[in-house]
Amino acid sequence: MTTTEASPAVTGSAKKPSSLRKWVSSHERLLLGILGVVAVLAFWEMVVQLGWLRSSQMSSPSGIVKKARLEFVTSGRIIEYLWVTMRAYLIGLGLATVVGIPVGFFGGWSKRFAWVLEPWLAALNSVPKVAIVPLIILWLGIGQTSKVFIVFLFAVFPYAFNTMVGVRQSEAAFMDVARSFGASESLIIRTIVLPGSVPYILTGARLATGRALIGVVVSELIASNSGLGFLISIAGGTFDTALLMLCVLIVGAFGLIMSLLMTRVEHSFDKWRPEPSQ
Amino acid sequence: MDTDARRGSIAADAAILAPAPEDLAVFDAAVQTRADGPLWRRLYDDPRFLLSLTVIGFFVLWEVASQQGWVRDLFFSRPSEIVLAGIREVQKANFWTDVRISLTEFVFGFSLAILIGIPVGLMLGWFRRLGYFWDPWLRFMYATPRITYIPLLVIWFGLGISSKVALVFAGPFFTIVIGTLEGVRTVPPKYLDVARAFGANNRQLFRTILLPNTLPFILAAMRLAVGLGIVAIVLGEMYASQDGLGHMLANAANNLQSDRVLFAVLIFTMMGVGLSKIVRIIEDRVAEWKPQMES
Amino acid sequence: MAQSVLEAIGLQMEYVHPRTGRSVVAIDKLDMVVDPQQFVTIVGPSGCGKSTFLKIANGLLTPTEGQITIYGEDVSRAPRNRGAVFQDASLLPWFTVIHNAAYGLQCQGVSKEEAMERALPVLEMVGLKGFEDVYPHELSGGMQQRVNVARALAVDPEILLMDEPFAALDAQTRELMQRELLEIWGQSNKTVLFVTHQIDEAVYLSDRVLVMSARPGRLIADITVDIPRPRDLRVKRDPRFVELVGQVWDLLHSPDESLVDRERHNDND
Q1: SS3 at position B24
Q2: With an 8 Å Cβ cutoff, are C90 and A173 in contact?
Q3: Closest Cα partner for B112 from B184, B178, B181, B171?
Q4: Which of A40, A155, A195, B268 could form a disulfide with A208 if both were Cys (CB 3.0 to 4.6 A apart)?
Q5: What integer pLDDT is reported at residue A69 of this predicted model?
Q6: How far does CA B262 lie from the centroid of its chain?
Q7: Which residue of B has its CA nearest to A198?
């Protein structure tokens, strides 16, 4: 990495840097990150132990661990709830993929379809979907159906938009080449449009996974009798900060994992892309 | 946008999740419309006509379907009812109090996020090691949906305005910090080299290279943050509040008044669009000099 | 007399601006022929319509009037008889070099496996043996253009249509590619229609140089290049070479009076 060093450079000493020092400086980012996590956790623990923060306001890390053991090992309730949330999440996300990508494809491919579709998509996208959730629950009731539908609504837009952009930016130059050789439309789609839009679709997938998570938690928070969001609302009602933080952790960790996973998938398509210049 | 998109930066996310209406193809359709030709052909080729047709058609269909009982107006209401509900609402003093409260919460929270977020982001970006130290927490907080914090914030701040302000603060804050951070980190080193070669001090570097380069990132993050802020307001007020527009929405939903609900949705949508538009205008003003930043 | 490979008859290309209604004549009543195994270049300033001409020849644009035929068949109907080499190599980044070279054949309906088999010797001919499984981004600009040429040669066309393929290369690579192109051409005995705005490139490569003026696009001269082949790059310092370049230059930069008057007339319409 060639980012410029902001802090003044350490003046070199006469002896050669030990291999340990070299290893440390090349893994600087990772080490500092770990240090950051550990330091904050330690500070947090201390703050609660010393009583600066009451545990009714904020649980300590050790409290959360204890809670986790209680929930996971002893009671198992959380596992069941996790499973419920997962199911709604995956089904909703799957639906969004299956619907969003083709819609996006036609939006990018057909001029007229785009004229009509794109403004509608943009308009629907600017409606805060959270505000619609009560209506949907009114409509579909409390239960799996409304949850899946809400997740679908949240996740479908990134897919549609991204695919559309990906298809639309199919390089005209490539299509000129193919057409001059007399290629059929289906060959053009197969060899130019689809491969070219894969990176965009993957970006859409990454964004969609994040949004789907929000969708499922929101729907469970507002009106549900099972699932992670429901657990959060219970914990909030009983001032159980340890449980609350545990849930935050789980949701956050899940979001992070999905995001990292998708980024990795995106990068696996990198072999034919030039290295980004930095 | 290509390399940004692959690295999942805020700027790319903003471009996808919050596109501006002006970017839509329908407004720059360069179709070889024949000046002559039968009317239906000309209309079929006109993007705005097709769009207007679908929009009008949708509302007409909705109204008719509701009146005929094809769809339950309890769930969907109908355009006429929504308009009437809107007119009724607007005449209530309560409504305007609610609007005022919601706007206040949003403005406070968002301003705090900007005022604190930008300096923090600048620092974290400039002092690399400091940035690395906080990176994991930042990423974690950004990846966690703010909604999961709602009960926690209620415990800390109660049901009054402050919990909503805190909620609105949370999302945009991390977005703006990360966006600013990225902006600082991706300043092309060669600009800094040139300036240093001419003997510029840190303050000049900051003003003439860092800020201009980072500004588009900050603005893109802000655009994204507006959406997050609106969501925070809606959720916070629906779930943990006794007033505000979101509370009105939840209330109406509980009373099965879908026309009022949809009216509230409309107001929120307009808020979001209006605010994004403001950010967009600022963005365009600032972006005049940047050749490679395509929308 | 053998039938000419490519023939343009009364070609006219007009653009009408959709809103203002003004018309721009890109190509004005153009007639020309290319005979078998000739290397013909169209040279002219930017925007004179030469790229438009090639687009029509490639079947990507429909002319307002007239037509281009290849061995008598209108170009819009028979894609198999020509091979296009574009200015931008336009290699599909997600395919390997060999697949890209085979892409032209694949477009024509040949199966991928067979296309790649047939493209292999062509790759060798352009000097890229050993690079089959490399991805385009790993190649230099000159090498990418060679794949570009290989792709066009692989379909065994009646005529190669080349649109300023060396424009994006640096000066030295460009000259080397010019010489290589002549070698490949010598080996393959193809007919070539080349388009460029560089006069020395045009004279170096061709048997005939067609000079085209801008707006409206019109052929103003057909110059035979009588420098013997094979031509080394040193030929560029030959007095005859310099003379020919000068001729073309004069034609392009000081058009005769009647031409100027005619253009002024068109602008006032």
Answers
A1: coil
A2: yes
A3: B171
A4: A155
A5: 81
A6: 19
A7: B6
